[in-house]
Every structure is written in C-alpha cells, then in structure tokens.
Amino acid sequence: MATKQNYKMNHDDQFALITGASSGIGRALAVECAKRNKNLALVSLPDSGLVRFIKYLKTNYPVTIQHIEIDLTTKDAPKTIYNWCQNKDIKVNLLINNAGRGHLGSFFDYDYDFYENILRLNIESVVLLTRLFFSTLTVRSQKA
Ligand SMILES: NC(=O)c1ccc[n+]([C@@H]2O[C@H](COP(=O)([O-])OP(=O)(O)OC[C@H]3O[C@@H](n4cnc5c(N)ncnc54)[C@H](OP(=O)(O)O)[C@@H]3O)[C@@H](O)[C@H]2O)c1
Q1: Distance 139 CA to ligand 1 centre (A)
Q2: What is the chain's alpha carbon radius of gyration, rounded to the nearest angstrom?
Q3: Which pTM does this prediction carry?
Q4: Nearest to 21 by CA among 59, 62, 61, 66
Q5: Which one of 45, 68, 72 would you pick to mutate in the ligand 1 pocket, going by the greatest count of ligand atoms within 8 A of its CB?
Q6: Residue 1 near residue 24 (C-beta atoms within 8 A)
Q7: Which domains does the chain have, with CATH numbers?
Q8: How many of the other CB atoms lie within 10 Å of CB of 6?
Q9: pLDDT in tens, 79-123
Q10: Ligand 1 pocket check for 100: Cβ under 6 Å
C-alpha cells in the first residue's frame, strides 16, 4: 500500500536511475526526484553538460548523486550501466527510461545505421534495463 512516506520517495539508501538526464524531460525529472529527497543515478551521453547539472543539484538538494556518461546505442550499454550500479553499490528502486528520440520525414529518408541506432536507444535499452533492474524494482513494490 502506498504511504505518505513512499509518495515522498524518502528512501535513504535507494536511487532513482534516470536515462537522458542532462536535458529536457529527464533533467526536469531529476530535479523533481531531488526535491523529494531521492538519491540519483544519472545517465547521459558523454559531454552533454551532466557534470554542470550535477553541480547545480548538489548545491540545491542534499541527495547523493552518481553518474555515468554512456551512449545507449552501444551494444552493451544496459549491462555496463547495471554493472556500474553493482560495483558502486547503487540500489535502484526507481527506473526512469527517459532517453530516446523521434524523427520526422519519410521512412526512406534514413539509412540502416539510423534505424539500428534508434531501435537500440528507444527499444533495446528500455527492455534490457528494465529486465536487468527488475528484481530490485519489485523488492521495493513488495515492501510498499
Ligand atoms: N517532448 C515531447 O513532446 C515528447 C513526446 C513523445 C516522446 N518523448 C520522449 O520523451 C523522452 C524525453 O523527451 P525530451 O523532449 O526531453 O527529449 P530531448 O530533450 O531530445 O532529450 C532526449 C534525451 O535522450 C537522451 N539521448 C538521446 N540519444 C541518446 C543516446 N544515444 N544515448 C543516451 N542518451 C541519449 C539525451 O540524453 P542527454 O542529453 O542526457 O545526454 C536526452 O536527454 C524521449 O525519449 C522522447 O522521445 C518526448
């Protein structure tokens, strides 16, 4: 059953893992989680301004923040993120699969590599991250 404490996300040693956290909706969700005292494990593309954003968050919110910069279109990205969490003892009980992109125009405007990358980003990484973190997410819902 959801309690007021759960709603506030005040789980001391637990993290929200957010992909695409340096800009747009992912960035906004990171701020909202920090406001609710949720520790953050942030994922973004390399050199996307995440470090500067983390400085802002740390100045304003007393939460623990870990981050990894990785391209989610690379084949082993979900496993790399999962292993990074294991190695750093980052306990994830909230997974926000935010990273993704859309595109405009005709199907034939884009080449094979484009579709391979977008499938990895929008589909493969979402399914594989959810599967990898599934057990830690369900432990939380059983306790709630
Ligand atoms: N805004 C809308 O109207 C709308 C509508 C439907 C669906 N969506 C979906 O909602 C999500 C957020 O939308 P948004 O408007 O905030 O989009 P956005 O500003 O374009 O942000 C997309 C996010 O995806 C991340 N990303 C893109 N390519 C990546 C890659 N190869 N590896 C890792 N991360 C990658 C970026 O991460 P970093 O910048 O952190 O590196 C960025 O934060 C997206 O999945 C989008 O498709 C948005």
Answers
A1: 28
A2: 16
A3: 0.91
A4: 66
A5: 45
A6: no
A7: 4-143 (3.40.50.720)
A8: 14
A9: 999 999 999 999 999 999 999 999 999 999 999 999 999 999 999
A10: yes
Ligand 1: which of 17, 19, 25 to mutate, most ligand atoms within 8 Å of CB? Answer: 25
Distance between CA atoms of residues 71 and 121, nearest Å: 9
Q: Report whether 32 contacts 9 (CB < 8 A).
A: no
Three-state SS annotation for 28-86: HHHHHHHHCCCEEEEEECCCCCHHHHHHHHHHHCCCCEEEEECCCCCCCHHHHHHHHHH
The two structure tokens encoding residue 138: 């369900």
Task: Decide if 38 contacts 21 (C-beta within 8 A).
Answer: no
pLDDT for 27-60, tens place per residue? 999 999 999 999 999 999 999 999 999 999 999 9
